[in-house]
Amino acid sequence: MSANTAPIPELYVSSDSAAKLKVEAASLPSWDLTPRQICDLELLMNGGFNPLKGFNTEADYNSIVETMRLADATLWPMPITLDVSAEFAEMVSPDQDIALRDQEGVILAIMSITDKWTPNKSNEAAKVFGADDLAHPAVNYLHNTAGPVYLGGPVTGIQPPVHYDFKSRRDTPNELRAFFRKLGWRRVVAFQTRNPLHRAHQELTFRAAKEAQANLLIHPVVGMTKPGDIDHFTRVRCYEAVLDQYPASTTHMSLLNLAMRMGGPREAVWHALIRKNHGCTHFIVGRDHAGPGKNSQGEDFYGPYDSQNLVAEHQREIGIELVPFKQMVFVQDRAEYMPADEVPADATVLSISGTELRRRLQEGLDIPEWFSFPEVVSELRKTKPPRVSQGFTVFFTGLSGSGKSTIANALMVKLMELGGRPVTLLDGDVVRKHLSSELGFSKEHRDINIRRIGYVASEITKNGGIAICAPIAPYTATRRAVREMVEQFGAFLEVHVATSVEECERRDRKGLYKLAREGKIKEFTGISDPYEEPQNAELVVDTINVSPDDCAQDVMLKLESMGLIAG
After folding, report:
1. Is the confidence at residue 370, as pLDDT, over 90?
2. Catalytic: which of 194, 266, 387, 432?
3. In terms of residue numbers, what domain contains 294?
4. Residue 101 in contact with residue 227, Cβ under 8 Å?
């Protein structure tokens, strides 16, 4: 039996033991796993994260952050941590077992806590992701979503998470190894993707498999990817639509339930280790592999070949061979794709960038067959109709008394005059009355209120409607979380109503600012609590000497320029 087809260890117990442990676990303290933790736990239990036996201990965590290795010097570049709330952390201690449940309360595993600590998240961000910069989605998650306390210790697997979608396309590492063993696949090259496959990808994978003299595993990520990515349901339909372009006897597609961190070079090494565990012998690494885009200074987080270089440095230790991505371009003169470095100097090269592709989809423009398969374009158009037909959210933010609600009401009327899509106004005061009446005005409660507004807006947007939100929303991180919720389904327009605190106080019909100055209202935004002004709002309006109707018209013009309403 070859090394890539031999079984690897899993963390699951037998079905009889699992039944007994379920009964015992019912009385244990329970932690409801986040979506990212569910992805991590699944790959821990099925061997995808081999040699890990559970969530990182403090010693392993510190060693990974500083050296890309476990405490015993085994190569492992990405911390796999169970982050929990401070309240839950106070309830548990080392040498205690806890039940790990999915979001519906089903017990998936038991964790034996060995370590509990408060990490230095800024150091983790700087060392693992290269910068403590909130523009990086994993750094933002680390600071604004992940819990403040980490728990470490081994995991005993009871049952895998349930997936209701694409069941026949999901394989554990040992299921893939058995499949390769059955077919006699001794050399397998894995192609990692979180995007739809276009013709350039097909040419790339064909060439990679041919050069490596290997069979091809198309192994797309369907766990958590970058906010704003195309949803995995659409992507899998796109993959299935073009699978018959590949020879069935040499190609297999399997879905990987991985929560990506967009960690560039470290992530590439991590992906290579995961693919090694899944029975692959070769791994395609592209330019800027798992790159998150631009940092706060507008520059790329990682160099274009940093990922390839780091995997090349460690490929022997991993036991997998790097296949460098070759940028494929369409040469019009030859009507074929070629590696960019092999194109004759006088040839005409055609290309469509990701930005241009999105523009063509948004505006319903033609996408040529040399670029993508008609079947793929058809699936993308189902999910991404022209922008003028999509749902969207307009999110006003500003101080109390700035004029948000007045402008929002004027905008609602203008959009209802246009017709075609239902319009819903989510005013801060109205939402508090109907959805958040139990909440106070602490930072925590204000965050909960804004996230509720964001959730409702995302559902309206997903179903093709228009949501207009008009809360104060004083905190940058919470506004960003709402943006990410909405942008899964449609456009998000942030409007900063930049009326000064002095003007808001002068208009104060309810006397709230006066009470706040006297200390009778605690944590009042702009007086005793901060308002973090948006730095990158799509539109800024000021209501001094400008009527609400004119401000609403400015929003309408912005929506028109974004293609969200017809001119």
Report:
1. yes
2. 194
3. 167-256+262-329
4. no
